[in-house]
Amino acid sequence: MFAQYGIAGQVFRGTLEEMQRVNGMARVRSARAHDREDDSRPIHNLQVMAPGAPNEKAVKAYRAMLPREIERGPLYHAGQIMQRKVICIEVNDDVEKAWRTLRSHNIKQAPVVDDASLLVGIIGEHDLLIALHLDAGKGLELLARRVGDVMRTPVITAEAVTDIRRIATAMLTNNLDGVPVTADLGRLVGYVSRTDILRAVVADPPLSLWR
Questions:
Q1: Where do the domains of the chain lie, and which CATH numbers do they carry?
Q2: 53-90: string of b/e by CB count within 10 Å (b at 16+)?
Q3: How far is CA 95 from each of CA 76, 89, 106, 146, rounded to the nearest angstrom?
Q4: Position 37 pLDDT exceeds 80
Q5: How far does the chain reach from its first CA to its final CA, in angstroms?
Q6: Got the DSSP string for 146-184?
Q7: Dist CA 34 CA 118 (whole Å)
Q8: If we measure between CA atoms, which residue out of 2, 33, 24 comes closest to residue 15?
Q9: pLDDT tens digit string along 154-167?
Q10: What separation in angstroms does the CA of 159 have from each of 41, 99, 129?
Q11: Model's pTM, two decimal places?
């Protein structure tokens, strides 16, 4: 199960297919709005699901596709491979501090949390470099800006019991380097990176490859 969290809290919760459909609709709506310049409705208006709301149809469909016998190794979930000690950046940190945090820990991106330690976005080197390019000649002013001004939000997350193959699909589809793992209300409990998934693929016992 996946969710998306932003400044306003949870804005989506559902299956991978539902998330792809909603995000696809959002991209189409964004493109049309850009052409017309008269529609600025936010993505989270497309679909809002109550936290913890079960999707019985999706659960039944997922169970129906499961094989009766599993013979090719265990099925890995995010909770089994995720990093539990996650480097976070606070939404009110300045951009310079965020850049130093990424560099000092040799990471490409990090989750962004608010004063209550709830996930509100994600920030990476790429985001900072884009901001630098757009604000060329204003380097000092940019470094004084807050992370909340340049972070990506809402951010895609997964629950600890999510199949890592579906997480990998979400990462490829949305061009993500990693996916935060959250519990209730956007509480960050871990992080799954591309490296974590690759490590699981080559580990013994192997990742089950049936679909």
A1: 2-202 (3.10.580.10)
A2: eeeeeeeeebeeeeeeeeeeeeebbbbebbeeebebbb
A3: 36, 10, 16, 6
A4: no
A5: 16
A6: BHHHHSB-SEEEE-TTSBHHHHHHHHHHHT-SEEEEE-G
A7: 31
A8: 2
A9: 999 999 999 988 99
A10: 28, 28, 30
A11: 0.69
